[in-house]
């Protein structure tokens, strides 16, 4: 019963097979492999963006930080949600790779930036001219760190506000496929048509071994990204193994199929938890992550049964009254099965109905 993270999941068989095929013979290095040319064409086709520049890196942090470095100078700030990955989980990488840019944190319900919050933050920045950091870029996370998604209309609304200040828009799409699977829209509708300039397209959390694509819809930024990737140590020499993963991931809609499977199991899990006595959802379940709270007794039962997930926030403890609710994050992945989810729910149900121990 693994719900700790989609990063704990195995690679999809199709991806592993592609890597093994790529291991036959020789191939040009540093992104000059034939598979990378096919990846570029496939991304352009999927996103309906024939001029897009496409680059591969091994991690989401590298994708986000290098992309933002191309958008934001050192004396500016990046506007992002308070709970965004670039703020909470990248060890200052965006600040490092930009050469010192700041992050301006914006609130908003369910992990989404509130348009009024973005507008207020933009108006407040640079009020004292040279004495303040300047406006740099806007970064959106889709799907969000709360397991929700931005619709194309949401993205367009925030992008329009950014455009009022002539700012570029970055999208952290480590779970982009999960957002698409929920929305049912096209990749273009959720990115450049809604005002996104650069996308970090995730693969690692959704069936790949370790690869992310940076998609620059404005090819004028391409050379700078190439230089930053090399200087930052993220240009693989045996690049064909990154290309093989991304090529198989995007082949025949595999990426959307895998994301749909993860989302379906999250819905099953979410609905099951919500039906338990004393349980409630903390955020709507729209992608593959479930945020919910239920009584401590159920958490104790789940942990005793070997379930892996995080109490969220992490300062909570299993010590305390049985009926006190504790909140948690549970993440499903492409390999999560119906039986695994049902087994977890059965443990929670049993924990919720177990008689209290006799008191001396």
TrEMBL record:
It is an enzyme of class 4 (lyase). GO terms for molecular function: threonine aldolase activity. One of its GO terms (biological process) is L-threonine catabolic process. This is L-threonine aldolase. Its cofactor is pyridoxal 5'-phosphate. It catalyses: L-allo-threonine = acetaldehyde + glycine; L-threonine = acetaldehyde + glycine. Homotetramer. Transmembrane segments: none annotated. It comes from Amaricoccus macauensis.
